[in-house]
């Protein structure tokens, strides 16, 4: 079934549900605002493009999606791919790749491919997710330690020596601000999990930089002013040669968007005892990525952390996601100049927490107790993601994982016998 969930929920919608959605939507917007900025920066894009993605894609995912409470926008899963595409093909290349990925996701939704997620080995998903988390955390060391580097390479094996070589430029004020923001995020999550602790932590850290005139980079000093309105939609440069060149990147973006959104919808189902529509979700992801690309935004998908925040804040229907997108738009229009004071180490602290949560350390003992083959597949996928390339990691991991699954089924269930020759 590809019908958007919002059409079902609006049949019985009332003022009580709207009140709950309003509070939840504003709460999620307070979380999504600094996170969208930080993800865009880590991806090698301008911070304003993160906000554009959260607004346009976030609105479309809620309006067209198959989950009652899914919240969409830019996520950490894309950072590695986006950074690589921008470095190799420029930002216009990323926009075209995102547009192509959106078309692929639309086709996947129309072909009812939503249930195929069951065939992707869980060890592969866990492996590349942990690998991405390692890369994200490493990419934030420069800002949280206040290091000065002439060139910050994308490759993990090249980045580590560069960071080590810049160790003498360590900035104590930057480290203290980053540590303060990190401690506040952790503390507020434990004491008041429904409270938008991210924006409070970043705000307090940034206020300390301004009040004490600390020599710490801010969003404004590094990137200039944020946009205060959405740009006019436009198409990137399109040619057959360019599309062929970017097709592998578009495939990876579409794969990540599909897997992440469906995983997030499954998590949401467990939290609300619901039942999402996977093909409607894929269709929504396609429309969202096309929309984001037309406005010059980043790839987008369902965000597990923001979706969970929405549920905990009392969100009942997709209207909460629509309100979240509108709230971010209003904040961009009214408070963009204030965002220029946000301290870079405080934003880096957000992504360090994001990386830690992505890696799901509470599940590591479970992985270690599982099948040896699954653990080996997880570690292989993780290492390939970090050391070589996410595309290679997914391709190798899925191939080996499906082969392992096939061999297990044959060893247990198959009555096939070799032909007598």
Cα-to-Cα separation, first versus last residue:
49 Å
Q: How many strand segments?
A: 2
In total, the number of domains comes to 1
The biggest sheet amounts to:
2 strands, antiparallel
- The helix tally amounts to 18
Major sheet strand order: 1-2
Rg from alpha-carbon coordinates: 21 Å
User: What general form does the structure show?
Assistant: globular
Element-by-element helix/strand order: HHHEHHHHHHHHHEHHHHHH
Percent strand equals under 5%
Which range best describes the helical content: under 10%, 10-25%, 25-40%, 40-55%, 55-70% or over 70%?
Answer: over 70%
Fold and architecture overview:
This protein has one domain (15-407). The longest helix is centred in the middle third of the chain and has 33 residues, at 240-272. With 421 residues, it is mostly helical. Strands 1-2 form a two-stranded antiparallel ribbon. Residues 412-421 have low confidence and may be disordered. It has 18 helices and two strands. The chain is 71% helix and 1% strand.
């Amino acid at each position: 079934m590809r019908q958007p969930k919002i059409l079902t929920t609006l049949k019985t919608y009332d003022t009580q549900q709207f009140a709950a959605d309003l509070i939840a939507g504003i709460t999620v917007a307070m979380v999504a605002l600094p996170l969208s900025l930080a993800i865009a920066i880590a991806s090698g894009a301008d911070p304003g493009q993160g906000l554009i993605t959260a607004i346009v894609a976030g609105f479309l995912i809620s309006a067209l999606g198959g989950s009652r409470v899914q919240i969409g926008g830019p996520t950490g899963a894309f950072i590695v791919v986006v950074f690589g595409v921008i470095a190799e093909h420029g930002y216009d290349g990323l926009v075209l790749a995102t547009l192509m990925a959106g078309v692929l996701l639309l086709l996947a939704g129309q072909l009812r491919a939503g249930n195929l997620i069951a065939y992707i080995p869980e060890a592969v998903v866990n492996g590349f997710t942990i690998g991405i988390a390692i890369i994200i955390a490493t990419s934030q060391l420069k800002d949280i330690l206040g290091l000065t580097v002439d060139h910050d390479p994308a490759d993990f094996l090249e980045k580590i020596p560069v960071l080590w070589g810049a160790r003498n430029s360590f900035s104590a004020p930057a480290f203290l601000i980053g540590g303060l923001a990190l401690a506040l995020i952790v503390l507020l999550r434990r004491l008041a999990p429904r409270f938008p602790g991210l924006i409070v932590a970043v705000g307090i850290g940034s206020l300390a930089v301004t009040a004490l005139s600390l020599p710490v980079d801010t969003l404004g000093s590094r990137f200039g002013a944020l946009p205060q309105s959405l740009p006019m939609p436009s198409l990137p440069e399109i040619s057959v040669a360019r599309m062929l060149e970017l097709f592998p990147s578009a495939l990876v973006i579409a794969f990540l968007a599909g897997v992440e959104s469906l995983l997030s919808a499954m998590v949401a189902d467990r939290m609300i005892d619901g039942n999402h529509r996977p093909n409607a979700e894929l269709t929504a992801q396609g429309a969202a990525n096309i929309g984001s690309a037309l406005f010059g935004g980043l790839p987008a998908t369902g965000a597990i952390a923001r979706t969970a925040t929405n549920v905990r804040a009392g969100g009942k229907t997709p209207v909460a996601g629509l309100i979240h997108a509108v709230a971010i738009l209003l904040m961009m229009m009214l408070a963009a100049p204030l965002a220029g004071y946000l301290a870079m180490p405080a934003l880096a602290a957000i992504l360090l927490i994001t990386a830690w949560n992505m890696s799901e350390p509470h599940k590591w003992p479970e992985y270690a107790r599982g099948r040896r083959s699954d653990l080996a597949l997880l570690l292989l996928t993780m290492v390939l993601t970090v050391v070589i390339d996410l595309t290679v990691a997914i391709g190798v991991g899925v191939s080996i994982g499906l082969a392992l699954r096939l061999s297990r089924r044959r060893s247990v269930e198959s009555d096939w016998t070799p032909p007598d020759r």
